[in-house]
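Final report, results section. Input specification for complex C-07:
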Amino acid sequence: MKTKTLLPLLGSLITPSFAALYSADHGDIGIAYEDEGDGPEFFLHYHLGGNAILDGSPVGGGEEGEEFEPSAITTLVPDSTRATMGSVAVLNSGTGVSDGSPIWILPQGEAEGVPFLGIATEELDGDLFPGGATFKLISVTSPSGNGDFSVWQQSGINQPEFFFSTNAAGDTVDNNQLSMSSGGHDHFNLGFSEQGMWEVELSVSGMLNGTDLLTDTETFSFQVGSVPEPSTALLGLLGALSLVRRRR
Amino acid sequence: MQAICNSETVILSLLALVSLPSTAREFDLLYGHHEIQTDYDPVDGWSLVVSYNLNDDFNDRTQIRRLKADQTTLIAPPLSKGVLPNGFSFLADPGETVWVLPQGFDTANHFLGMRVIANAGIFQTRVGNNYSNIGRGTISFSLKSATGSGPDRGGHFAHWESLSLGGSEVYLSSRDGIDESDEIPTLPAGAHSHFNWAFSKPGNYFLEFEVAGRLRAGGQETSHRETFHFQVPHSGEVAEINGSLCFHNKDWTLNLRDPENGVLYGPRRALVVIPDSNAGGGFSCPCSFDAIGSDLPDRVGLPEILAQSGAASVLTGPVSLRLIEHIGPGEVSFGSHFQSADGLTTADLIDLTSPTTATLNFTEPGIHTLAFQPIHSTASKVCPLIIRCLAGLDLNYSFADWADSYERAYDLPSGSLTDPSGDWNGDGTDHQMKFLLDAAGADPIRTTPSSSHFLPGYDTNSQRFTFFRDLTKDPLDNASPNLLLSYSSDLVNWRNLGPRNRGRPLQYAESGAEEGNAVSPFIRRSLLLSPVPLKSFFRLIAE
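Structure output:
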């Protein structure tokens, strides 16, 4: 795995608020399997395509793009993705957003000027991981502490299928777990019920050769709504720090 | 050819040691992540193909493999079939059966994306009908025509994007006619997006697409067209026997017509499904036989000449059909023409000088195989002509139904065949595998005749390992039993192929081996290997 290490903007204040901002084009939350001498390990990471926009510029790196530690990236959910929820019971329950309320959605389909963020197991070999991998939603920290995060897919002629939901885990396909076969890659809707900085903690697990359990857990950060002005950013940073302190 | 057993799995192992020639291949794909891919290069121009990535990393342009559109068929798999709810009038009416290759990934289905490989800055960027030199540049993708037996029987094609909060962004739809509105106006250079592709009737769909863009250098328009082939399987189910005996060049077939749906089924490509008649017991259906050919538009498992060459038309002298065997519980009768209750003799004959019609009746529920011998002065050694019927069962009959039916057919004690891992006749093939290969003629009691070319084996004509998939028994999902194709070059290391490990069509993959111009759930398949190892060993596994 090639991992690009990004310098934080404010020295030792390493928080997601000051990670590089991923603001458009294609990228994935990916899982890699590696053995660098310490035994086989899973690595959750970002894999951003060469055209993905990071801090205002294309990532580059040729066709393969670059891979990043999750802590190095904040994904922007721009204000252009704000929608007003309708009255659809399965969507209201799954997203935790009521009829007439706003929701910000990173969409499953590609849209201009919006991150096209997928989830990928492309780097897993089906012969080594015949059961694929399972992503699990561990925790979510919303700006107010009361927001709801959800991941769902609309496809074909089916009703929406929810995979992650902080509001209604019981309505998800597998209790806030998402299983994918090896070599897979798919796109989902990521829904956020309020503006601000979010942290989403995910774990992934898989059985090497069908017998040896490998896992990894990482936190992914999302800036929902407009990007704060510098002065506001500092307030946001303080808020984020206070959230972190409270959680600790 | 020999049989082997694997210590970990009970396997039907018909093993072939062969050297296959490397020839131009045609591909048909039942599942997997592929793309309708547009390439544009200023020197080489356009290409529009089906593609996949060698390393499953769709960010990696260097690993793309391309399949020519005119050599590739995408078949709608069983789990693509569904009943249309409200809100999709651009495809069909609510309640109609449709087949959808969905936008989201599903192991048991196609995951068909659209990809554009063109460097940024070659094309202008379109916004509405205005163009500029900002951004990476875009191309358009439009539907120009939809032809084939699917559209001919009223089938429609639609292509849309599912929206996040419900609803559809419809790009292409043949239901309201095809015009300039059937267009994805902008696909950016470097795009890789997924959409829903759907069809509303069985049959063939030849979809002609056009990609177009306006070049930044010089500003001229450029475009390219290509036709892609999609197939929606016929049901493989008929409610009555409308049998057509045909002969051509030493080959005999007894085909089943389905005139209502415009399809002719070749050997073993359909089952006759007979409900309980509730009239004095028994299971009855209308039945007719003739020796007249058929010109129905879709032929499953049949070359055109064999479908059209009615035996009475191409042969001189009388032609008849003799029932030589009934494998199934209870008895069968067909008017005064044959009855199994008093034993089958040369008198159990259907004269086909003219069409013969009567009622076919089975006394017991279960799986019934009728084996016929054509009688004509030219017919000497002919493989039995098979018609398979289900009395009181449907196409999705279970393993328990299978075991019960064969136990009664062969007067075995109840429970003799109920263990999937059992092997009653000790031929090395377990009951589970025989259930999966029931449609191919696998028999749990008798040694299966080696002459059956539907059972797995090396086919000298196609020079490939071929086998028969019954998609009603294994619809390619993860529910057991799954029929997996496996191969090895050393009998030690085996590579399994299936929906979870689909292979790569230009290296190793399951592909088609069907004759005819249409398919049903009963479908001949083969293994493609390229380059071909000097030694290749093949087997099927039930998991």
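Chain B touches chain A at residues 33, 55-62, 82, 84-85, 88, 98, 100, 102-107, 111, 120, 136, 161-166, 169, 188, 190-194, 196, 198, 495, 500-501 (CB under 8 Å). Residues 399-409 of chain B form the longest helix (11 residues). This concludes the modelling results for the funded period.
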